[in-house]
Amino acid sequence: MKSTVMKTIAFTVMLTTLWLATYEISEAARRGGGGGGRSMSRGGPAGGGSMHRSQTRPQSSSRAGTMDRSRNSSRSQVNNRAGDRQISDQTRQNASDRRDNNQDRIDNRQDNLSDRQDFRQDRYDDRKEYRNDRQEWYEDSWRRGRYITAVRWGSVGCANVVYVNGVRYYQCGGVRYEQVYRGGEVTYIIVN
Fold this sequence. Notes:
It is a single chain. The chain is an alpha+beta fold. About 65% of the residues lie in helices and about 15% in strands. Strands 1-5-4-3-2 form a five-stranded antiparallel β-sheet. A hairpin with a 2-residue loop joins strand 3 and strand 4. It is rod-shaped, with a radius of gyration of 48 Å.
């Protein structure tokens, strides 16, 4: 799970960097090229690249330069629209990725919650079974070897006789008794 989170973070950082680079390039194109610095005026004597050529250039050449700038400006606007569409597509993709990541986090949270709840229930069931087993063991060890006198036996009123391997037992409520003599008196001992 840790590697999945790290991959998701790395992917998000990579997408963000790509988006920022695309955004900067489109902004630079929208501003007319350049890397963000200020440029000299394109008009006047420095517009032709040299003071000497600019002064000797005929008037018609100046009009042609204006038309070139106009064409370049319209190309720049077309490029800006394409860049805006690219940014818009990237923004939609980023939003979709964020929604998917959020849904994955919600699903993981729900799975972890269910796992913890199942673990708690299993632990509760195991502890309950352990307590029941111990309780039965204590009850069995407490009963085993206990004697009941004949007088008390009469009050129990158990007449259900069971033979196991030729030995006669009395079965009362899931407990087996064997008739024995103790100190010359008839008693009944719990055997299970």
